[in-house]
Amino acid sequence: MRPRRVDQNPILTPASISASHPDLHVVGVFNPAVTEHEGEVLLLLRVAEAARAGADGEITAPVYDAERGQLEVHRWPRGTKDLDATDPRTVTVDGRTWLTSLSHLRIARSRDGIHFEVERTPALFPATPYESFGVEDPRITLLDGTYWINYTAVSPLGIATALASTTDFRTFHRHGIIFPPNNRDVTIFPDRIDGRYVALHRPMPEGIGHPAMWAASSADLISWGDHRLVATAREGSWDDAKIGGGAVPWRVRADGRDAWLAVYHGVTRSPMTYALGALLLDARDPSRVLARSREPILSPETPYEREGFFGGVVFTCGLIADGDRVRIYYGAADGVTAAADLSLEEILAGMASP
């Protein structure tokens, strides 16, 4: 597999984005959802903002206070007792964990799929107690003329998945939590199967069990059940630590039969690396895996993928498939947005029975 990264990569960087608040600055623009609407390619970007540091490089954590409807910034001197800031994404103080950035979702528009104009104001900003640490990693699914947006809602209560909808990408309606903590990496299929909506999701058990991809179904997109295991990490493979959903699945023909193709992310245990692969799923029962990528279809190789806010990461929430060309939009090193073109034929040729 030889993906072709677009020459303009990274196509969006923090310098492309204006901050949403005077006390914040943009540290990342990445993991966009993708769709086409009225002749444009739309990205729904995750924009991560950090508080401006005070004296002596203090550690900060911006939080949205839903009850008061305002931003708050928690600050700790670097010498604070029992403070752990070894992971740049989090800070733990006295056993309590905070995020060092607050994410919101913002729209970028393009006619050519490469050069994007980013709107100055957020499309979806934290608004509820379940979103006080941010809203992250959206996916967009078009169903019956409505664009359904599922996204990660983070708070001290955990990592949940929430749902919103729009018909015009100007007005958005929130529908609340659809998968409670801890659950993320949800992708909703773009067609009903046997009259029901279907989604992939990734619960995150602690103690017993490991993160794995599951399928669920729903009559109304709000209440989900019929949970079935889809895939787990593979010992000794490139995805041996954990896996999770990526882009919204789409219909393909493989070996003369209809199927779903789902691009997912897999994590290598040592050194920790996020790469992308694909699952071929049964058309009538998406919990049944027909084939799986032997090797990654996209791995962190360039400097902007290997180095950055959190290096060694390529992570997708959306793509556009057009014939044999599969254009994947992805976050690189949790800091910038990039794009790469892959061949559908090559993706399928690189798969084997699970």
Topology:
Layout: E1 4-5, E2 24-37, E3 40-51, E4 59-65, E5 70-76, E6 83-84, E7 90-93, E8 96-99, E9 102-110, E10 117-118, E11 134-143, E12 146-155, E13 158-166, E14 173-179, E15 183-188, E16 197-203, E17 213-218, E18 224-231, E19 242-245, E20 250-254, E21 257-268, E22 273-282, E23 289-293, H1 303-306, E24 314-322, E25 325-332, E26 336-343, H2 344-349, E27 351-352
Antiparallel strand pairs: 1-26, 2-3, 3-9, 4-5, 6-7, 7-8, 9-10, 11-12, 12-13, 13-14, 15-16, 16-17, 17-18, 19-21, 20-21, 21-22, 22-23, 23-27, 24-25, 25-26
Brief summary:
By secondary structure, this protein is mainly beta. It contains 2 helices and 27 strands.
Low-confidence stretches: none
Q: How does CATH name the architecture?
A: 5 Propeller
Shape: globular
Q: How far from one another are the termini?
A: 19 Å
Instruction: Give me the number of helical elements.
Output: 2
Structural class: mainly beta
Helix content: under 10%
Please describe the biggest sheet, giving its number of strands, its sense, and whether it closes into a barrel.
Answer: 6 strands, antiparallel
Q: Domains counted in the coordinates: how many?
A: 1
Using the coordinates above, name the CATH class: Mainly Beta
Would you count the extended β strands for me? Answer: 27
Nearest-angstrom radius of gyration? 19 Å
| CATH fold-level name | Tachylectin-2, Chain A
Q: By CATH's scheme, which homologous superfamily applies? A: Glycosyl hydrolase domain, family 43
Beta-strand content bin: over 45%
- Please write the string of helix (H) and strand (E) elements: EEEEEEEEEEEEEEEEEEEEEEEHEEEHE
- Report the average pLDDT across residues: 96
